[in-house]
Design goal:
heterodimer, A: 640 residues, alpha+beta, eight-stranded antiparallel sheet, 8 helices, 12% helix, B: 213 residues, mainly beta, six-stranded antiparallel sheet, globular
Chain lengths: 640, 213
């Protein structure tokens, strides 16, 4: 009991949440499938749900909500111009809702624009809503899915069932798979094509349009795209609605037409299906990430994106921000497993990272819509219908404690510059073993793509800033066209706190001199390796160790007094895996060690992981322990 | 006549979802105004409307085909539209007494020409819901309300400036008695309504259920 208390206190100390998640209770008469969120200019919170309602409250925590509108067709975007005028995107149209008699509920449902076609297909979503500086509205349409029917009765506009290439998701209705703009007086202008399921629209503080698109056919991994007029962003189906379309095209033509994403969100590691990007415009109320982008995901993830302009185009890095996923089984059960299995599928699951449980309220799945409140907290509207469990409303509040994070990852002439949110342990940052840098890319193919051409990237020099808040990394053979995956699991702040999220993924499309990848976009450069043989997965074990074990046992396996234990006036010692001789931790049999990892160690601070890790994962981490720190073979495993 | 009792506006949806009229729960009809749900409707164009005029008088309004697809005494079951990733159309629970299949039965100036129709939205006004659209650029407002203690659908059209006459291509009905006001039957099932082209004009139609209660 005492040990459990100490462990709880220790965990809370080491993983003290610099951001707290709060649950917002919803009235029972409100469907919790929240699919849009916004604040009125006066600061009232407005949400929409997939049942088609619009609700408004002056204080979400008070529980006093009123219903502003109902009967809308699966709205997935909302914009509150005032408490009497709210705009929503429904499946078939952009609608202006007005309360003309001041009773608090809309009486006028005006079609502001419906100049695109719909067919009632289940996947034919109309996503998001943002207002530009000139008053225009921006949103997107998703592509239908062949798994569901298409309604050809009384089409609003003539349908076109022709395939542009080899698309699995078609675009039978005009402007399906496009980003569109509607002027305040209701005139629509199609802006850009090539989207699959561009579920999240965002406007930068400078007024530029960004969308997220979701992984699948042609879109090898989910993306954050800077949308520019006339461009094509990769999914073939919607190309037919361009004025210059003259008939089916080949992959080579598509490749030439395609504009790459600003930032790739690697499938699995950075979620499965991103939602709305929101810019931190809170002026510091939400912590040290002013000007950066937060993106919710269908999985239990909110990511963070740093953008920079290189050779005239945006690119940058993404980082995990808040993750609440414990074990692949939990992810599969709760976070849209289907989304992680098509089509990169098992590849996505392979790269999904386990993270330890957060203290306090966990983040739910379905984080598709977010908005900053006037007080600087981030509200999250959640819906998962059909892809998992999790609906409702949560908000994230910065605790005012500075998180230890990689604030920025910028491209330099010969590598990257990392800037941290706080001064770091200089000794660790000077050590090569602190860094693990790899690179990979995705192919542009109709069926999607797993990671290819994945190799280690060598860091040849580290240049640490005097204030220990940034470090420049020189990288051998730095090349455009790759995503650089950086892990800094040994890095810690000057006062010994580990990085909260030690991963970063930089999408290096352009070098500073403007050079881009000129190799084949649809073929790997490195032959795909044969399937690995059965047996423990050392790489998986390394990741699990880095996630769950490293805090106590240390990166070098030497364990010792647990970090933070002094603060709770206790002496807690983690096992030293490098110790040798009889009685040393790794001298025990595999069976004994598997039991210890599974059930914990009675009277010691080793907690049980049997409910967190699957048996195979426990074998993986044991294999990693032996390979990294100890004898590679137990002397006690051959007992009958 | 619709009782004026107020209930929470969410209740009819819930009741409708489960195919239960509110008066069977509360003992009396209790809707103060109609309720419109845009959703997947059977045998309709994409994203049609379910219009719950009273808890026991419902119709499907199809803005793409052009009008009332069906009217029925019964309830609306929205549950199939909300259940899962891939959903089904809402279900009609009750006896359909009126149906239309003609594409754009309301015609402007020429009964033989299918007009170009653009939907403009709808609004609530007292016990009625009013759908707005244009036919060949002429603004039309179509009012729907329940009368006759929930047995009759009353449709009223307000034709905006730009049309000297409009035509309605009626269809034979077995379950409803259909009456028009303000026009004449120019030929079998083709009704003509005329008025001032500059200021516009109005006419009406009643759909009374002949089905047994």
């Amino acid at each position: 009991m005492k040990t459990a208390f100490l462990l709880l206190a220790l965990t809370t100390h080491v993983w003290a949440n610099t951001y707290e998640i709060e649950e917002i209770a919803l009235p029972h008469e409100m469907s919790p499938e929240l699919s849009g969120i916004a604040f009125t200019p006066a600061g009232k919170l407005v949400v929409v749900n997939r049942s088609g309602e619009v609700w408004i409250t002056a204080d979400a925590k008070s529980g006093a909500w009123s219903r502003f509108a109902f009967g809308l067709h699966e709205p997935l975007g909302v914009l509150a111009l005032s408490e009497a005028e709210i705009l929503v995107t429904q499946r078939p149209e952009l609608t202006r809702l007005r309360d003309t008699d001041g009773d608090g509920s809309a009486d006028h449902y005006e079609t502001l624009n419906d100049d695109w076609a719909v067919t009632d297909n289940w996947h034919e979503f109309t996503f998001g809503l943002r207002q530009e500086r000139d008053g225009s509205f921006v949103f997107s349409t998703g592509l239908p899915d062949v798994a569901g029917p298409v309604n050809t009765r009384f089409p609003r506009l003539p349908l076109n069932m022709e395939k542009v290439h080899k698309e699995m998701k078609p675009s039978p209705g005009r402007y399906e798979g496009w980003v569109m703009r509607v002027s305040p007086d209701g005139r629509m202008t199609p802006i850009a094509s090539g989207f699959r399921a561009a579920a999240g629209v965002g406007l930068s503080p400078a007024g530029e349009i960004f969308f997220t698109d979701q992984q699948g056919d042609y879109i090898a991994t989910s993306t954050l795209v800077h949308v520019q007029p006339g461009r094509f962003y990769g999914h073939a189906a919607s190309l037919k609605w361009r004025d210059d379309y003259r008939g089916p095209v080949d992959l080579e033509t598509l490749t030439k037409l395609r504009t790459p994403e600003a930032v790739a969100l690697p499938h699995g590691a950075m979620g499965g299906s991103p939602g709305e990007p929101v810019w931190d415009t809170t002026g510091g109320k939400f912590g040290p990430f002013a000007g950066q982008i937060f993106i919710g995901d269908f999985t239990k993830l909110i990511s963070r994106v740093f953008l920079e302009k290189v050779a005239g185009e945006y690119q940058g890095a993404c980082f995990p921000f808040i993750r609440d996923a414990v074990g692949l089984a939990a992810i599969q059960a709760n976070s849209g497993a289907n989304n992680l299995t098509i089509p990169a599928g098992k590849d996505g699951l392979k790269y999904f990272r386990d993270v330890p449980p957060r203290t306090g309220t966990p983040l739910r799945a379905g984080n598709m819509r977010m908005a900053f409140a006037p007080d600087g907290s981030l509200y999250i509207a959640q819906t998962t219908r059909g892809w998992g469990k999790g609906d409702g409303l949560q908000r994230i509040v910065w605790s005012k404690k500075t998180p230890v994070e990689i604030a920025k990852m910028e491209l330099t002439r010969d590598g990257f510059q990392l800037t941290f949110t706080t001064a770091m342990d200089a000794e660790r940052l000077r050590e090569a073993k602190t860094y693990r840098l790899r690179r990979f890319r995705y192919l542009y193919l109709p069926q999607g793509s797993p990671r290819v051409d994945e190799t280690a990237a060598e860091i040849t020099a580290m240049r640490l800033a005097e204030d220990h808040r940034s470090v420049e990394l020189a990288v051998r053979d730095l090349e455009p066209g790759y995503i650089y995956e950086l892990e800094l699991e040994r890095a810690q702040s000057a006062d010994g706190m580990p990085l909260e999220n030690p991963q970063a993924y930089y999408t290096l499309t352009r070098m500073l001199d403007g050079r881009v990848f000129n190799g084949p976009m649809s073929q790997p450069l490195i032959a795909v390796k044969a399937e690995p043989s059965e047996g423990p997965d050392l790489e998986a074990g390394r990741r699990i160790y880095g996630t769950f074990c490293v805090v106590c046992h240390q990166p070098d396996g030497k364990g010792g007094a647990l970090p933070g234990s002094a603060a709770i006036n206790a002496t807690l010692v983690a096992a030293n895996f490098t110790q040798r001789g009889p009685g040393s931790p790794l001298s025990k049999s595999d069976a004994e060690l598997l039991k210890t990892i599974t059930d914990g160690a009675l009277g010691k601070p080793m907690p049980p992981f049997g409910s967190v890790l699957k048996p195979g994962e426990i074998r993986d981490v044991l294999a990693y322990l032996r390979a990294a720190f100890g004898e590679t073979q137990s002397t006690h495993t051959s007992k009958p | 006549m619709i009782a004026a009792l107020k209930i929470h506006p969410f209740v009819p949806l819930v009741l409708a979802m489960f195919g239960v009229a509110s008066h069977s729960m509360a003992g009396e009809v209790a809707m103060s105004k109609p309720q419109v749900f845009r959703t997947f409707m059977p045998e309709a164009g994409p994203s049609a409307f379910a219009v719950v005029l009273t808890p026991e008088l419902v119709l499907c309004y199809d803005s793409l085909r052009g009008g009332v697809n069906q009217a029925w005494r019964g309830t609306l079951d929205l549950a199939p539209t909300l259940r899962a990733k891939i959903n089904q159309p809402a279900a009609v629970r009750g006896a359909v007494f009126y149906s239309e299949t003609t594409v754009q039965p309301l015609r402007v100036n020429d009964a033989r020409k299918t007009p170009d129709r653009r939907f403009k939205g709808y609004h609530y006004e007292g016990d009625a819901v009013i759908f707005d659209y244009t036919l060949d650029g002429v603004l039309i407002s179509e009012t729907l309300r329940a009368t006759d203690n929930g047995r009759t659908v009353e449709r009223m059209w307000r034709i905006g400036p730009g049309a000297g006459a409009v035509f309605f291509l009626a269809e034979a009905q077995t379950g409803a008695e259909v009456t028009f006001t303000g026009g004449s039957e120019e030929s079998p099932n083709v009704w003509r309504f005329a008025g001032d082209e500059k200021t516009g004009f109005s006419f009406g139609m009643k759909l009374q259920s002949k089905l047994p209660q």
